[in-house]
């Protein structure tokens, strides 16, 4: 959690670069622009956060990685004994479920990125002037690191399965960026709700649980024209999860144009979320200080 030492670090960084104190939370003209300083500070906050994140944890980062593996194994067992029908995934269910859940975790972690950054950084927001975007950068880097750790562990589990895997494995982190962008954007768009309404956090968790069942995380989109199949095809998250998974396991994306359009839409949501964040962060900070 970000506390007083981080505030001192921010204030000291501004002084060491020869800047004047900022009234608007942005550095004066100099070696670093507003965006450059936000990136630099975000990286420093990320490094500081990672050093203390698992200090008192029994298994450290293994907790977040173990969840995806254990859940995928449980669903794989249910599929093998006939409790779960998976259609076209019958022959390679475990890798598809595992990759799907890792990507879903990336999306949900990205959605929480903005709200968690603001909640954990309340002292900084109230007492220090700095580019607020640095908070989002630091949290986003943490989300990316967690995703890479899960993917490395998943790779270690996929290799012994004798799957026809190729160099496309290296593309998964890159192709997952639009999914993370969509999650961060949605989180920033709903950030005022998270701060101003105390029950929104609990409601958002329920919404995410329902959304997972409308997304092909653990099972494919049904081939028939049922209502569930139609809703899943309209779900942009489904496209952003299916695309990277298909590249890794099938070597290609079934509908590349749809994935590209959805990816562009995801970055549009990120841009809109950042605009809402910049416009509302002052009001959010004042509300948190009351």
* Rg on CA atoms, Å: 21 Å
Structural class computed from helices and strand pairing: mainly alpha
Strand content: under 5%
Distance between the ends: 21 Å
In terms of quaternary structure, the protein is: single chain
Residues in helices, as a percent range: over 70%
What number is the mean pLDDT? 77
* Global morphology: globular
Main sheet characteristics = none
**What's the total count of β strands?**
0
Instruction: Enumerate the spans where pLDDT stays under 50 for 5 or more consecutive residues.
Output: 13-32
Number of helices: 14
Series of secondary-structure elements, N-terminal to C-terminal: HHHHHHHHHHHHHH
For the structure shown, list the relevant keywords.
290 residues, mainly alpha
Structure description:
The chain is 71% helix and 0% strand. It is an all-alpha fold. Helix 2 (34-53) packs across helix 7 and helix 5 crosses helix 7.
Secondary structure layout plus pairing:
Blueprint: H1 4-16, H2 34-53, H3 62-80, H4 93-111, H5 113-120, H6 122-127, H7 133-158, H8 172-175, H9 177-189, H10 191-196, H11 200-213, H12 227-234, H13 236-250, H14 256-289
Helix pairs in contact: 2-7, 3-4, 3-7, 4-7, 4-9, 4-13, 5-7, 9-14, 13-14
């Amino acid at each position: 959690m970000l506390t007083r030492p981080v505030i001192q670090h921010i204030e000291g960084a501004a002084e060491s670069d020869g800047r004047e104190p900022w009234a608007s939370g942005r550095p004066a003209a100099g070696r670093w622009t507003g965006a450059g300083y936000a990136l630099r500070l975000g990286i420093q906050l990320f490094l500081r956060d990672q050093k203390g994140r698992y200090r008192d944890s029994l298994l450290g980062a293994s907790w977040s990685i173990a969840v995806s593996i254990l859940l995928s194994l449980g669903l794989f067992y249910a599929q093998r004994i006939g409790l779960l029908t998976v259609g076209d995934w019958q022959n390679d269910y475990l890798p598809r479920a595992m990759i799907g859940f890792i990507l879903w975790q990336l999306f949900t972690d990205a959605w929480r990125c903005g709200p968690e950054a603001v909640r954990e950084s309340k002292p900084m927001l109230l007492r220090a002037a700095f580019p607020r975007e640095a908070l989002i950068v630091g949290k986003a880097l943490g989300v990316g690191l967690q995703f890479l750790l899960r993917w490395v562990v998943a790779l270690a589990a996929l290799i012994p399965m004798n799957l026809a895997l190729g160099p496309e494995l290296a593309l998964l982190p890159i192709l997952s960026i639009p999914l993370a962008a969509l999650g961060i954007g949605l989180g920033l768009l709903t950030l005022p709700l998270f701060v101003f309404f105390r029950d929104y956090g609990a409601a958002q968790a329920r919404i995410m649980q329902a959304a997972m069942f409308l997304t092909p995380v653990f099972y494919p989109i049904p081939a028939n024209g049922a209502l569930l199949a139609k809703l899943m095809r309209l779900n942009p998250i489904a496209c952003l999860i299916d695309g990277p998974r298909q590249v890794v396991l099938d070597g290609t994306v079934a509908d590349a144009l749809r994935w590209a359009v959805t990816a562009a839409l995801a970055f549009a949501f990120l841009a809109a979320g950042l605009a809402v964040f910049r416009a509302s962060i002052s009001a959010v900070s004042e509300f948190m200080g009351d």
